[in-house]
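User: Can you write out an input/output pair for a complex, sequences first and structure second?

Assistant: Here is one pair. Inputs:
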Amino acid sequence: MDTPPPEPSEPSRLERDYRRVLRLLPAGYRQRWADDMVGALLDSEQSAAAASAAGEGPERQAEERAIALLQRPPLREVAGVAALAVRLHLASPQTPGASAAARLRGDAVRRVALVGLLTAAGPALLSAVTSLYTPVSPELGAAGYTRGDAVTSAVWTLAWVAAYALLVTGRYRTASVLAALVVVPDLRHPVETLVNAREVSPGTLLGALCWLLVVLVPLAALLAWRSDAPRPGRWWLLALPVVAALGLAPWLLWRATGVMAAPDAAGSLCLGAAACAVVALRRRDASWMGSAALLAAVGGAGSLGQLALLAYPPGLERDLGWTALVLLGLAVAVGVVAVLTRGRLSAHAAARAATAPDRSARDASA
Amino acid sequence: MPADVSSGMALTEPAVLVLTALVGEPRHGYALIAGVEELSEGRTRLSVGTLYGLLDRLSSEQLITLDREERHQGRTRRYYRLTDDGAAVLDAEAQRLAQIARAATARLRAARAV
């Protein structure tokens, strides 16, 4: 193994930039390990640089070592630190070196992914079942929509159900990849809107941005599901048919009153936020309230985007506008409850962590 | 909690390589990266973030432990060593891998003989 030459007194660009990347890590962890990690990176990069000039003499190798210190940290090293940061900030009960707050945050974010997938999978299940068992309407038939199209659409929709089932049964990586694939068609329209931002109305632009949040935040939350995360409780699987059945409520309301009040994806997140807040208050659980707050923020933003979209032209889709407004109000209410109860729930969580530092996997995932 | 030697749960390849690099002598971070690269004949080059995540896990499972700290070029450098549990887990894993290799070799020879 080569021995690197003494370091100059001023930190090199490589060291400065790498220390900047290390700021992604929690402060306590960084304080303990930053020196070690910086030393390992500098030695590693300098040795690799010297090895690239092997056979060209010691002077050339020394030159390569010096040049290595002038470079930016390689992308793979930045990615390695970013992955470690995600693991430590969104920890599981088994993550070594993570704080109790990071474990609580990790539980909250993992639940956001679960609720996000559940609110997509429930309506998807209902939609697939109804589209398979109901004939194609004459209007759609006249437009060239066939039974085969209906089956293809149902199978594609069922991919949401598969992704949710994979997540609940512990196949986290496969679930994440499948969800990322299924979400691609949903991204097309908002991305096109953003690309043509100058040609669309402000309401359409705001709507597209908010829709991206609604789609991407639960997807990003899937990153918190790593192999050391405890498997979700069984009742998450039972929640799927329940949520699918609840999807009939807007149809029943429409049949009874003529009011179309179906929540979109953002509205479903608002309802999920309210459900999480109820569980948080019943259990006095800060991680559930954290999930509620995050879902309310994303769902509320999505409902705001929906309202912005409906405002152009004004008066269009009045029922849907009222639905979005009510759900936005619900999201705001959940946010207010989360702020008001934060201190009490955090104190309860700290007391619980002090009395039972090794919570069972079941408690963490329930 | 130490890993259960008898559980038969497979370690990841980077974990096996890090434990193997620690056999016989304590090593610091860079020496482990170099050791893993050498053992894998250049196929595995651990990023520093990956290595320290792995060291956390192996430490929490009590397969490795901190041996000593030294100052090197103005920075703290920590050396790790293999624990008795770590050696036992590595030994079990090596036997498991060797058994798979033997089975694969035997089957290939039998197939060629047909």
